[in-house]
Amino acid sequence: MWIRNCWYVAGFSEDVERKILARTFLNQAVILWRTSGGKVVAMEDRCPHRLVPLSIGQLVDDQVQCGYHGLRFGADGACSHVPGQDTLPRACQVKLFPVAERHALVWIWLGAADLADEKLIPDVHWMSSPGWTASKGYHHIEADYRLVNDNLLDLSHETYVHKETIGNGAVADSPVVATIDEGRVVRAHREMPNIIPPPFFAMMLNAPGRINRWQIAIHMPPGINMTEAGFHSVGTDRAKALMIRPLHLLTPETEHSTHYFWGTCRNFNHDDSVLTERIREGTAHTFDQDKHLLEIQDRALRAQGMPNIPQSAVKVDVGPVQGRRLLAALIEREQADPHAVAPTGTLAVDGKVTMPPAA
Amino acid sequence: MWIRNCWYVAGFSEDVERKILARTFLNQAVILWRTSGGKVVAMEDRCPHRLVPLSIGQLVDDQVQCGYHGLRFGADGACSHVPGQDTLPRACQVKLFPVAERHALVWIWLGAADLADEKLIPDVHWMSSPGWTASKGYHHIEADYRLVNDNLLDLSHETYVHKETIGNGAVADSPVVATIDEGRVVRAHREMPNIIPPPFFAMMLNAPGRINRWQIAIHMPPGINMTEAGFHSVGTDRAKALMIRPLHLLTPETEHSTHYFWGTCRNFNHDDSVLTERIREGTAHTFDQDKHLLEIQDRALRAQGMPNIPQSAVKVDVGPVQGRRLLAALIEREQADPHAVAPTGTLAVDGKVTMPPAA
Amino acid sequence: MWIRNCWYVAGFSEDVERKILARTFLNQAVILWRTSGGKVVAMEDRCPHRLVPLSIGQLVDDQVQCGYHGLRFGADGACSHVPGQDTLPRACQVKLFPVAERHALVWIWLGAADLADEKLIPDVHWMSSPGWTASKGYHHIEADYRLVNDNLLDLSHETYVHKETIGNGAVADSPVVATIDEGRVVRAHREMPNIIPPPFFAMMLNAPGRINRWQIAIHMPPGINMTEAGFHSVGTDRAKALMIRPLHLLTPETEHSTHYFWGTCRNFNHDDSVLTERIREGTAHTFDQDKHLLEIQDRALRAQGMPNIPQSAVKVDVGPVQGRRLLAALIEREQADPHAVAPTGTLAVDGKVTMPPAA
Q1: Minimum distance, in Å, between the CA of residue A54 and any CA atom of chain C
Q2: What domains does chain B contain, in order, with CATH numbers?
């Protein structure tokens, strides 16, 4: 249900400090820590001696010291100290995982280590680029990550789930057009001209009256999502629209739980820290609602033996159905060839006016 | 372990209102709601689109609107609205279950729908008839419903479990005579002449001195139970005895949980609302004790792999053993013929003096 | 993973009173109670009638009365009373387990009853002998008892887990010598001359300055452990050393939970009840730390499918590895011959000066 040969987000850069952080990705228990030189290290969360989690131990200089019998392991995974003896057992090693830092995020590679090419890190530069200001946060979702992708690829649910923030009748009622770029990226585009702004948009625009709004649900499997939203007062120029590009970066924790790292990136009012906080609050509140719904859905599907969804496809499923197809093809390819690696695609280009989709 | 082709109690009539009520019966998740015309509707609690429970949605006029993407379904189970499109997908249907209202109860049929004949609804008219006043309540029991039947068919446990309400030494010490009527109804009859009344009976009689008491545990499988209890002061006429006919209506929720709808119906002091409440309290307290014991028993049996009980039969088992035999025959018959339907039997007749059993 | 033909500790003598005590040993639910004559009885915690736990019942004279239908069973396990009938069903019996009291402990035999020879009760007389004063306690550990044995046989963990009580760097840094006596008892001996006393030892010694300390982890499978610790001020006579002999008596409850009965027995200041309590507190605090660690380890091992440990053996593993070998041989022997019984060994001899191990 997931691929291994790709970079997953392991955390925000600021999550990894000079102490041990334990997280599980794809059922693999991992510890993350930072050396005195600033380098991030990712290791299996398991002492090779008596198999207790290394996360109950502590950092001693640039070594992890086990909390049970005091064995130590360096940033290379090798055992560097055994209390009560001078020789070091060579087989006593902790497994390392390739890691990289980019876009203010820590990325981890859980597949074949020799394939971990940093060029394959998805470009989500909006999280940390000049010209963009991000309101960041994290949700832990007790649901299959594919259900979160589905949710993000069919935004008609905003009308029913997010009435008080980003949804109103205009979302579900507007037609959606889906395309696939480079065989890697799904785009589900919806134009909503001349509508009453939902509360979250009214707050950001801070101007009275109706707006033109567009939204594009952008998805690169297995778990990179962006929701471009543009909006401007009716009668003003589309090229001057305000834009947010919320990133939703999903890393499976287990078959039924997901790390959801997010950042709502905007291209306006960069110095307004009150706005940054309001956007963070509104986004967090919105994703709380998704979390509630997705966890109910996951429990219901598990009780039914995980049938395929949708069982009855309707028009708004065009995005999720395309996303699931791309993902299934990636999984199938990696199962056939454990060294298969997929190239990355482009989520969005800066400095161009987003145009309505061709009919 | 259960039959499907019969009417089960789904709730009290007043439980089903102009909003969605979710309950599970025989492992089937169901929603119950009432149309603007007052008709009760029972549907599978599952949207056929992305399989979330419809119970997270809401009623919109006489349609159920899914809480995720807003699809709507009418009282006939057909899809009546899909946001963002004009055509309605014909295959997109919610399963309906036959329901009926009688005796102030909602009844549901979970078997073959074409067999759902309302003539098969068990006659428990004491819940709502003139001449009877019911003190009603509900217990959720985390135990196999068959253990609850066993409990109700061997009332000798009153001596040990219900000392402060309905039991004393006289119950367990008095012999029990069991009969089967119409091949459908088990009666386990016990006469207790000239005894000190247990507290609950003293409260209802409201007169000093010893009483004559009888009790009949009446059971129609799979889950209809009545405990007729008659009592009068020693030296007074049996024909003038006060009577309660507590109904215990059991609907399996899962293999190890049971909906227990009850009503302690009496034939005296109908206008005494304080008495109605005292009987409700006394009954609820008594069934709290049964719930505690039955849940311990169910856990113990599960830990032992659900062996048959009783392992050692004693005289008081005559009622439960007969009840289990009738139930096993019904289950066997339905498994052999999915269209088998059992007729209903008569729990009790009004206006006749209950006589002691033939020796 | 365990043997049955041996005496396990069921409780402290004072735990078993004139009421029913329920405990599970080796997955077997048991009740313990004391007759009016003072004899301890151990029975299966299950009424043979409807299989409810007898522990919800009560003692009536020298009989256990079931809390459901009032059946009674005597100290011989036979049914002595059935309400509502005069004859007693002969097959209606409760299983008995051999029990014995010795060293202020109740011992139970869960194997073949005819092999339950009281001569096989391990000698742990320090719990109740003149010349020794015990600070006693109990911990319930949610872990495989073998992990607790491992923990007790490699005390180098004191340095990392018990810094505030019994551990310091000297423990893990001092070499350990392991021996096996009589094919039954493992001893892992460590000498720590001229060290700063850890806080718990400083408290007991109540004298300033450095000490000589020795410790011997003593283990007789399946679950009898003693940690002899001697200590005296540097420059004083070893023969005059103070000694504690903490007993750690382990009885498996289930595959992943353990009854841990303990007593820290000392040979000094017998009348100092404040010291008795301080030792109890210090021991309890120390074992709280072990409990925390062992439960994490058990969960980690279960998640990994219970691999063998240690995966990488280091020098300090010599004790645990020997202990596991003896245990595995006992299990293998009992599986080959259900009547195999192992003789007991000697944990320690009183009145002799403990000498350093031969190099």
Answers
A1: 11
A2: 7-118 (2.102.10.10), 125-336 (3.90.380.10)
